[in-house]
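== Item description ==
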Amino acid sequence: MMRFYAGPKAVAFKVLMFFLLLAGGCQSQTSQITPIVPSQIPREFSDADWAHVLSAVATPDGYVKWNVVQSDEDIRQALRRYIGLVDMVSPENHPDLFATASDRLAYWINAYNAMCVYAVMEHDYPGNIMAFPPTGTIFSAERFFFGGRSMTLDDVVKDEIEPSGDPRLFFALSFCAASGPPLRSTPYDGAVLDAELVDQGQRYLSDPRAAVRDGDAVKLNDLIGVTRKDDFLAGFQKMMGTAPTGILQALQPYVHSDSPIVGATRVESLGFDWSLNRPPR
């Protein structure tokens, strides 16, 4: 669903339409999932609503309890409020609300993950995250608003994530996909972002969603071994001052000792499962 944001007039229009629907005794499905945009710019940016959502829907393994999103109106309202805040505020249009580069990156990670969850709700919880008719995938075709700017999720990656030169950020974007990185149960926090990314990388690269050992080979999913391979190669060179011999060496700074990547001598493909990241049965 494409949303149009044009400042206070758009907010007033949304509020008017909401009360007209109530007065008519019927509220459409569209109005039930429309973002709740703040009436004014906040003095501080808060992830409290997103934290409330995550605490209720993220499992210990980083999957999403979609049944809670579907059935719990309190959680749906919190998600709508957070998306409304993201609609209105970003580090681009209100840099004063984001003191450090880490604060800005934390915003983009949280906004990306929340918008992905919101899009799944908008599209009635499809079985596969890539199946979003009629506009195509939520990543490359559907547009959302971040601080009043219309962007695709791919735009967020290209314009806000990639320029950082830190490939660990790709351990944090969940994609709402079964093979994607686990969704943390708390928002990313700029004050401790580095430690969170270290933990997230070790967690993901020890998880069979990302890496599986098979003899002397390790099977890497396509996010790590194909799509973002060049980011990890470049990140290693930036960190170490020398080019890595390949993706296995490039991943070594991020792995825990229990990762199936440790000691592997060759790489095979694990593919990537784009089905919705529901808890395994």
